[in-house]
Amino acid sequence: MLVNELKAIFHKELDTIYGIDEVFSFFFMLTEAYCNMSRLDVALDTALSITKEEQDPLFKALEALKRNTPIQYILGETEFYGLPFAVNENTLIPRPETEELVQLIIDAHPKQSGTDKISILDIGTGSGCIAISLAKNIKDSAVCALDVSAKAIKKAKENAVLNAVNIDFVEVDILDESTWGLATRVSKFDIIVSNPPYVRHLEKQQMQANVLDNEPHLALFVEDNDPLVFYNAITKFAVTNLKPKGELYFEINEYLGQEMITLLETYGFSNIKLVQDMFGKDRMISGLNK
């Protein structure tokens, strides 16, 4: 079969779901992954053909895309902060907004060096994207990462090996204070960072079907009547597990910026900064411990 013929099938089946440009991108990603073809060849070589053996995974991917399966889950990988990450149904697909959170922390520690390593804790690590990106980019850092999901931790460990960083992963339910002692393998942390679940059920209608139908709800949603449940627990944890003037960073729900400022103030944090993302939405907040 000619590649152009298969591409036409993809457009016929998927354009009404995703749009022409998105389908172009999907097709290039899949032929590159499964057929080792460059995007340039696929775009320009009208005589390019693929074998029956090469067609099979592409048609399977086509069916998965019709079911709104994210392309990252189909390929089993994605990129975050310039690094490769394996992902599956047990981990969220990392977002560009979270890259901004990582950049915020890295910018605050541009030349970290000295006799003492800077200690960092990532709570709710998922694929490990935040912890691994920080470990890779902040010199002399010692990074620990927590998650309630053993399956997510397994995938995060794979990603740490993939990116050649050493991270201490621990299975902890941050909402269960009786497990907090497992997280404190160092006496105090310099930085605690988290991108916890923050989407209220009332906001589901704003989300795309491929997210709702595929990504783990455990890592996405909170109850409408207690949307700051994770932030409250993590901030309480941070008070006793951050060093004096230690830094707390969150990715947050864009609609709850003022509520987050009040929460951090209630726990005695200072120098609180609410930061907008690339779309001008309240997306990050930071503060200093007492």
Could you explain how this protein is built, in words?
This protein is of the alpha/beta class and 290 residues long. It folds into two domains: 3-67; 89-288, 3-Layer(aba) Sandwich (Rossmann fold), CATH 3.40.50.150. The chain is 41% helix and 21% strand. The chain has eleven helices and eleven strands. The protein has helices at 3-18, 20-35, 39-44, 52-66, 71-75, 96-108, 129-137, 150-162, 209-212, 229-241, 257-266, and strands at 77-80, 83-86, 118-123, 141-147, 167-171, 189-194, 199-200, 221-222, 242-251, 270-276, 282-288. The strands form three sheets. The chain has a seven-stranded mixed beta sheet, sandwiched between helices. A two-stranded antiparallel ribbon has the order 1-2. A two-stranded parallel ribbon has the order 7-8. Strand 3 (118-123), helix 7 (129-137) and strand 4 form a beta-alpha-beta unit. It is elongated, with a radius of gyration of 21 Å. It starts with a helix and ends with a strand. 33% of the residues are buried.
The major sheet is characterized as: 7 strands, mixed
Instruction: Outline the low-pLDDT stretches.
Output: none
Number of strands: 11
Helix content: 40-55%
Structural class estimated from helices and strands: alpha/beta
The number of helical runs is 11
Beta content: 15-25%
For this structure, the quaternary state is: single chain
Shape: elongated
- Kindly identify the CATH topology of the largest domain: Rossmann fold
Mean pLDDT: 91
**Structurally, how many domains make up the residues?**
2
What is the CA-based Rg, rounded? 21 Å
* The named CATH superfamily of the largest domain: Vaccinia Virus protein VP39
Q: What is the CATH C level class of the largest domain, in words? A: Alpha Beta
The CATH architecture of the largest domain would be: 3-Layer(aba) Sandwich
**What's the helix-strand series?**
HHHHHEEHEHEHEEEHEHEHEE
Query: What is the CA-CA span between the terminal residues?
Result: 66 Å
Strands of the biggest beta sheet: in what spatial order?
5-4-3-6-9-11-10
